[in-house]
Amino acid sequence: MKLRKILYGYRYVNGAISVDKAEAEVVQEIFKDYTNGKSLLKIANSLTHRGIEYMPGVTAWNKNKIKRIIEDQRYLGKGEYPKLIEET
């Protein structure tokens, strides 16, 4: 099983963590869908159906990946990560 080396929505640029624009848009969509009542499974199925990559060549999403994204405080700008979402 492959593991990401950096949190989804970010990438390294010259050794520093920066926002990956395309992935950040997916993260923001995930949070929006979840706060609007969409289930973890429906969000995962939608991303899989649309062929959104989680990692290069990996387009299979599941509710556990979505749950980990939703629960991760770093998306709020915690630690060394730039803020991607607003706290609700």
Task: Give me some keywords for this one.
single chain, two-stranded antiparallel ribbon, 3 helices, 2 strands, 39% helix, 9% strand
Strand content: 5-15%
Largest sheet: 2 strands, antiparallel
Q: What's the total helix number?
A: 3
How far the N terminus sits from the C terminus, by CA atoms, comes to 33 Å
**Residue share in helix:** 25-40%
Could you say which overall geometry the principal axes of the C-alpha atoms support? globular
Question: How many extended strands?
Answer: 2
Structural class: mainly alpha
Poorly predicted sequence stretches spanning 5 or more consecutive residues: none
Sheet with the most strands: spatial strand order = 1-2
Mean pLDDT: 94
The secondary-structure element order is EEHHH
The whole-angstrom Rg is: 13 Å
In short:
The protein is mostly helical and 88 residues long. The protein contains 3 helices and 2 strands; from the N terminus they run E-E-H-H-H. Helices cover 39% and strands 9% of the residues.
Topology (elements, then pairings):
Blueprint: E1 10-13, E2 16-19, H1 21-35, H2 40-49, H3 63-71
Antiparallel strand pairs: 1-2
Q: What features would you describe in this structure?
A:
By secondary structure, this protein is mostly helical. The chain has a domain at 21-76. It is built from three helices and two strands. The chain has helices at residues 21-35, 40-49, 63-71; strands spanning 10-13, 16-19. It has a two-stranded antiparallel sheet with strand order 1-2. The mean pLDDT is 94.
